[in-house]
Write a structure and sequence with these properties.
Distance between the termini: 58 Å
Bound molecules: carboxymethyl coenzyme *A
Helix content: 40-55%
Amino acid sequence: MTTKLGSAKQGAADKSDSVTLTDNQTGKTYTFPVLTGTDGPRVIDTRKLYAETGMFTYDPGYTSTASCESKITFIDGDAGVLQYRGYPIDELAKHSDFMEVCYLLLGGELPKAEQKSAFVRDVGSHSMVHEQMQYYFRGFRRDSHPMAVMVGAVGALSAFYPESADVRSPEQRRDAQIRLLAKAPTLAAMAYKYSIGQPFVYPRNDLGYAANFLRMCFAIPSEDYVVKPSVARAMDRIFILHADHEQNASTSTVRLAGSSGANPFACVSAGIASLWGPAHGGANEAVLNMLTEIGSKDRIPEFIKKAKDQTSNFRLMGFGHRVYKNYDPRAAVLRESCHEVLEELGMRDEPLLDLAMELERIALEDKYFIERKLYPNVDFYSGILYRAMGFPTSMFTVLFAVARMVGWIAQWTEMMEDPEHRIGRPRQIYTGHNRRSYVPIAGR
Ligand code: CMC
């Protein structure tokens, strides 16, 4: 076996490498190709494993399994690297804006000026939702969790655009991409407005994507909401940082749902459901709930102790990551934004931020967290920022969903355009009963 890391050109995985496995039971040896991408670890191609050996691989949680080939996002968790189409996340967060990043993720290259303005116009022209959607919202209880409403509302778009079921049509796929991207903030703001009993606010296309979203959330008919540029910029930055994260749980859900040829609105709705969980997008809400529960700095040691206790289920929310075993590069950018926005809003002494900083300090010095490489993740700071902007905790995961929409669409599109894509169908190790005969009820 030879290592050819980095030898493949962008566009194809290198296929000249191989690995040989020996079955200790039969003594037979099998050779499998080893694929090399443009970056990242080498990958054993096990597609023919079952056909050749009669065995499956076992990998719950997919910690060692690449489910697809992708050109969109690269993560090196050990080095704390995140790149969209090759561009480092911190450079994009500093110099770019969300619309440009969307164009990049969807199309592969940064736009020229005229391409960018055409794209922004295109997204703007789809930002309204069908007026009938209002009645759909009115069917929910006012106290429904906005994520429950989002799962339903995004899935319901399938009913408004039945032509998007033609997933083989590039034109239909393009329309669905733009519609999802354009309508996500409108639906998210509607979910929020509905939950607080205020009228829906229509989008305004003269505002940027983030500013328009903030206005739809916070304006009321009797008083417009003047969006502070620094707050809009922080929101835009949050959107950039969350836009894609390769094959995470929600993205894999979108791909798996889409692998059957399902309508893209329904696939993304499945992704939103997956994002909702506290181990994924729900973590930012859980961070705020945890900080509120801790309440004061003197109670931090008690919670750290609980997090380290192997017999307790409690985890320090906002710490640790499946992929990053180093500082989450998104958390580093957001930490800075968090301070800037709180300064701008005159909330520098916000007690929860103070508490969060102290928790971060203590955890980063603790042997347990150091040994397990548990660093603050992006959710640790995003929750504090959302809170400062005026969002209730129940909206935090919705904001994540708005930001991640472009990643889901880009990944779904890449899969649909991949000639090698097949329906996703994992296998299992069966550990249930062997065959047994049916016993009539009287004899059980
Ligand atoms: N607090 C305390 N201990 C932890 C934590 C934590 N937050 N996270 C992991 N550990 C411990 C865990 O108990 C285990 O210890 P041991 O080796 O002694 O058994 C060790 O660290 C490894 O944990 P793991 O469960 O094998 O790690 P994982 O990769 O399966 O889990 C995670 C990753 C994100 C689910 C987990 O770290 C966690 O539950 N964190 C809190 C929730 C959170 O903040 N989630 C947001 C993730 S970032 C947003 C996103 O990208 O979606």
